[in-house]
Here is the input.
Amino acid sequence: MTRRRPTVLIVDDEFIIANSLSLQVEELGYEVCGTAATAAEAIDMANSFRPDLVLMDVRLRGPEDGVDAALAIHSTVGSKVVFITGSREPATMERIALDHPSGILIKPIYGQQLRSAVETALAS
Here is the structure.
């Protein structure tokens, strides 16, 4: 019996970053089930694909941010969330803490940081 590879949903409103994260996650041996650019897309995709992990940018296009999306996903799907942010501002960190994140990555993200955050989140 073949074991299913863990699935990862990538949420970032910058196509180049989402694409780069997708390639890196696949190189780590995980399956990317999709990418989303808004909170609404992320919630819809999470409900459809039920990913094991969501890599969630905090700042997204539209009225809701990544924390709003993560809270909705966590309550309905239960996926683990690793937040990605370019800001270390206390207000941003406090918003992230609302969701009990499995990890936080500060941009720019390097390969080993991503590997460590993904492996730690999926192992917990």
